[in-house]
Specification:
The chain has a five-stranded mixed sheet with strand order 1-3-4-5-2. The protein is built from two helices and five strands. About 20% of the residues lie in helices and about 30% in strands.
């Protein structure tokens, strides 16, 4: 008798188009060593969940695929009216390193800003 092998759920695919630098600034997570993004999303996720993101950046026609992991969750009705969503960390690979550099290049001086973000 054979036992069915439990299949691992496939990561969900999220398409994220960030059209403005201010939105990218609010979503970017420079505290993660490999970089990361906050994604406003209503679906429930758990820490450690795999997510696959197709990211589009401001003034850049290229789509960047990211196989990230959920590193934090902002639940519905969070304190201080924070937006519900997830923070994903980029994997430790060359594509992520280049994407982090690209995001930081787009943001430039915004990175030193004191403006509040969606992140920590």
């Amino acid at each position: 008798m054979t036992h069915p092998v439990p299949s691992t759920p496939r990561p969900s695919v999220i398409q994220l188009a960030i059209k403005e630098k201010s939105a990218l600034y609010a979503a970017y997570i420079p505290l993660f060593s490999e970089g990361g993004l906050f994604i406003p999303i209503l679906r429930a996720y758990k820490l450690g969940d795999d997510v696959y993101v197709l990211l589009t950046l401001p003034d850049d026609p290229q789509r960047y695929p990211i196989s990230g992991k959920v590193a934090w969750v902002t639940p519905a009705k969070a304190a201080n009216n924070r937006t519900q969503g997830i923070g994903i960390s980029f994997p430790k690979d060359e594509k992520s390193r280049l994407l982090k550099l690209r995001i930081e290049e787009i943001l430039g001086a915004h990175l030193a800003s004191e403006r509040p973000t969606q992140t920590i």
